[in-house]
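Supplementary notes for students who missed Thursday's class. We covered one full example, reproduced here. Read the sequence, then the structure, then the short commentary at the end.
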Amino acid sequence: MDNLMTIGAFALETSLTVAALRHYDDVDVLKPAAVDPATGYRRYRADQVRQAKLICALRAVDLPVDEIRDVLEADDDRFLHQALERHRRRLDDRAAAVARMTADLEEYLEKGLPMPALKGCRPVQVKLQAADPAFYERVFGVKYDESISSFQFGTYGTESFFLVTTSGEGTGYLVDDLEVVHRRAVEAGAREIEPPTLYPGMPRRSVVADPSGNRVFLYQG
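Structure (token representation):
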């Protein structure tokens, strides 16, 4: 026990905060070597410093905690390399999404925010079951956005906006009054799958199945 490091000393040695070390203990990423049953004080072995510094480095590039846990459990260089490759692709997608938003912002600053008045409805999405993103990237030169499982054409809020989504099946329409169009669809024989609902980061939407069973996604314009 005398050879173990206090949590404060371990934090100084590893550049992790005491709060972070407590969190990594709670989520089973880095457990202390011993915990005093009377005081709850955590103590660590010197050979745990390497693991702690690896955690620090991986969190610095925003690798998710769950994946860091897998890396530590595998303790394998090849597994680590594969995890970093996957994360690099994820960061590339994130950077591309930020670049698109920056380009949109520059356009808004130069030309003003486009807010065209929508009348009626307009198709804005097609869903392709089990589509291969790599095919569309090669053919059309567009970047796949994993956060929405879609290729985005144009800027949201403009006439050029359109999504090709690689999960599920059906078509999506931007409508001027979601409740009215949703009710009209049900009255015309559609089966309600999802009532008008607001999701974080998305316009309000509903989902119906037309009389032939095709899914129709309705989005508030």
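Commentary. Helices lie at 7-14, 18-26, 49-60, 65-74, 77-111, 133-140, 178-187. The chain has a mean pLDDT of 84. If anything here is unclear, bring it to office hours.
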